[in-house]
Amino acid sequence: MGEQTQIQTKTETPPQPSLPNSDDFPQNPSNPSKIPIRPQKIRKLSSSTPQSSNGKETTGPTKNRRKTAPKSNPQIIKPLTFNGEIDNALQHLRSVDPLLSSLIDTLPPPQFETHHSAFLALSKSILYQQLAYKAGTSIYTRFVSLCGGENAVCPDIVLSLSAQQLKQVGISGRKASYLYDLANKYKSGILCDESLFKMDDRSLFTMLSMVKGIGSWSVDMFMIFSLHRPDVLPVSDLGVRKGVQLLYGLEELPRPSQMEELCEKWKPYRTAGAWYMWRLVEGKGSPTNAAAAPIDGGNVHTLQQIQTEQETQQQQHQLQLLEPINGIENLGACIWSQ
């Protein structure tokens, strides 16, 4: 009995020691197993508890949802021929550019009037490509007569003409291929007058650049003189570059990047500013003389056209056909108002 009592006494479970406080743990324990686990922090919910769509409170965190931007209606671009737009353009240019303001005061307001279809205007830009104004006008007049009049110029008529017929009126083989490509894109439905008038500037450049012989300069001229877009700056046009050089007294012709920087303040009416640059060059750099410079049938002759005409005056019995170099870049502008 005594031994059993001793054994039972030895097997009894000793009392569990009390848990020590956190302050009792050593600062740098040697045994990692004795490191206590910190209790997980409980995030308190804000007073404004989010609610679900059925009105019940949601206890969990809500997922960030992407905010969809409100759909904006496409911007309607008012052409410069819209009532009051020319006045708005001149008021803006006067307020942002004192030098241009002085020029505006000495010249009549810009005029952008045309009754041509888009197809005819694009065909005309191809025909005037790299030619003196008089030479281009002579070829264009013969071309229109061959088609049966301006109203008759359409894709079907152009495609019905042979390269030999076009050559007889002074159109080179390369320009004939440009006309055929333009007509075929109209014929296939890639281009049409209605869609071109509705496109924004960037889409216009993309679509028209697909036509052989039409580059950035030709697209700019089309947007200015056919669509009357208000904010077009033809940075590759020699006449506009020369006008900016004269206006700001630059020693050299500004590069396209410089043109963008110098004319940035003209936005959103850079088209009107470009028009005054052509007139400034037409007046040989003098605002006073520019006011009295004649306009031939509503057409503004820019620097390159004037220089080319002077070179061809001694050979008026011949048409100097210059093949395009790098498309139709760096040319002077022709304004067709009839």
SSE blueprint:
Blueprint: H1 2-11, H2 85-96, H3 98-106, H4 118-127, H5 133-147, H6 155-160, H7 163-168, H8 173-187, H9 193-198, H10 201-208, H11 216-225, H12 238-248, H13 256-262, H14 270-282, H15 287-291, H16 303-312
Structure, briefly:
This protein has 16 helices and no strands. By secondary structure, it is mostly helical.
Q: How big a fraction of the residues is strand?
A: under 5%
How would you describe the shape?
globular
Largest sheet: none
Q: How far is the N terminus from the C terminus?
A: 135 Å
Q: Which blocks of ≥5 consecutive residues have pLDDT under 50?
A: 69-74, 285-304, 306-338
Helices, by number, come to: 16
What is the averaged pLDDT score? 76
Written account of the structure:
- Helix 4 runs antiparallel to helix 8 (173-187), helix 10 crosses helix 11 (216-225) and helix 12 packs across helix 14.
- 45% of the residues lie in helices and 0% in strands.
- The relative contact order is 0.13.
- The longest helix is centred in the middle third of the chain and has 15 residues, at 133-147.
- The chain is globular, with a radius of gyration of 38 Å.
- It has 16 helices and no strands.
- The model is unreliable at 69-74, 285-304 and 306-338 (pLDDT under 50).
- The protein has helices at 2-11, 85-96, 98-106, 118-127, 133-147, 155-160, 163-168, 173-187, 193-198, 201-208, 216-225, 238-248, 256-262, 270-282, 287-291, 303-312.
- With 338 residues, it is mostly helical.
